[in-house]
Amino acid sequence: MISPKLPENEAQRLKAVTSYNILNTLPEQDYDNITKLVASICDMPIALITTIDENRNFFKSHYGIPFNESPRNTSFCGHAILEDEILIIKDAREDERFKDNPLITEQNAIFYAGVPLKNEDGYKLGTLCIYDHKPRELDESQINALKILGKQVVKLLELRRNNYKLEEANKELKVRYEQLKMFASHVSHDLKSPLSNIISLVDLLKDENDSALSEDSELYINTIEESANILKDYIDGILKHYKTSELVYSKRETVELSELCKDISQILIIEGDEIIYTENTIEHINKSALSQILINLVDNAIKYNNKPKRIVDISYESLEDHHKFNVTDNGIGIPEDKQDTIFEIFQSIKNDFSKSSTGIGLSSVKNLVEKLNGTISVTSELGKGSTFSFTIEK
Question: At what angle do helices 215-248 and 140-208 cross, to 10 degrees?
């Protein structure tokens, strides 16, 4: 018996084999289907998909035998990966490389044919091979089938490796996301307390020195107050942005649109303003997410509105696969060339209305709508108002 030689690129080949994370894994139906198919096509009792590591053949799929590995130094496949296309041994008893090989004496492996599983970098990871207990020959169609199915095995291995990489990347992204969310929460909490103190002290200064402040001092205090409120809005916006994912998994329930709009009115609407709404019973919808979306849109509609009476109209339409909502206001409107950018995070629009925007709210709304398998868009006319339309999958 002659043990198979090592390929010249053995170190790199072993590294490639390891990169597929296939060694010592459980059987998978896709690979088992191929060994069953090739055994049927070639009329063989045994078919294997092997990957060859430093000391053994690991059988990712083994049709016709009960074990899933064998020593490399006695393997037929160790010789097959030294070939370019295929190794066919009609009668191993007559081949000096295999005389006295335990695969012959103990397993009665007489006929062998194997194609190397060569990846796109040229490394031969193992083989797709077949055995018989008697001398055999393969016709041209069987040889072609063996080669074609060998290439299919390599494609499965590549797909499996890519999926594994994606899973690992997703795990890392989830960890980083949770760390970022925790960081945002801690920073926001640490900043909100001194900001609240600043805002409270400014209010106190204004109340106690209402008539004693010079024009410049009053301007300075108002600037401090406005800056503090802008920063507070940023912090609140960041927290909402990172909490949108949690809202997606809230339970679905039946919602009375009128009741929801009344609740929003109590939170956002002051005397003289008005929310108009339709009377609709909406079944099987994520109430928490819908509330967050509407609160953001109504808040913007009120905030960016210079009319004596600020009006927001909320309407609902049931589509085949989605719930559709329109939120229409009579506010200052959005320039046409800015309507495609307002949903991007940190994108705000300068206006003459003296109202600052963090550029986070609408981005969070879009993020939440898309996670609910919906879409959001806006139509607007300067000076007349805007309509935000969004859908949520039923």
Answer: 150
**Through-space distance between the first and last CA atoms of the chain, rounded to whole angstroms:** 69
d(CA 140, CA 61): 24
Full 3-state SS string of the chain? CCCCCCCCCHHHHHHHHHHCCCCCCCCCHHHHHHHHHHHHHHCCCEEEEEEECCCEEEEEEEECCCCCEEEHHHCCHHHHCCCCCCEEECCHHHCCCCCCCHHHHCCCCCEEEEEEEECCCCCEEEEEEEEECCCCCCCHHHHHHHHHHHHHHHHHHHHHHHHHHHHHHHHHHHHHHHHHHHHHHHHHHHHHHHHHHHHHHHHHHHHHCCCCCCHHHHHHHHHHHHHHHHHHHHHHHHHHHHHHHHHHCCCEEEEEHHHHHHHHHHHHCCCCCEEEECCCEEEEEEHHHHHHHHHHHHHHHHHCCCCCCCEEEEEEEECCCEEEEEEEECCCCCCHHHCCCCCCCCCCCCCCCCCCCCCCHHHHHHHHHHHCCCCEEEEEECCCEEEEEEEEEC
> What's the pTM?
0.54
CA–CA distance, 126 with 222 (Å, rounded to integer): 75
Q: Which domains does the chain have, with CATH numbers?
A: 10-162 (3.30.450.40), 250-394 (3.30.565.10)
Q: Give the tens place of pLDDT for each residue, 187-202.
A: 666 676 677 777 788 8
Residue 301 Cα to chain centre, angstroms:
33
pLDDT digits (tens, 9 = 90+) for 229-277: 666 665 665 566 556 666 677 778 899 999 999 988 888 887 888 899 9
Q: Which amino acid is at 104?
A: I
Q: Rounded to the nearest 5°, which phi and psi values hold at 322?
A: -135, 155
Distance of CA 62 to CAs 87, 104, 215, 382, Å?
A: 19, 18, 88, 71
For residue 28, with 0-12 CB atoms within 10 Å meaning exposed, 13-18 middle and 19 or more buried, which class applies?
middle
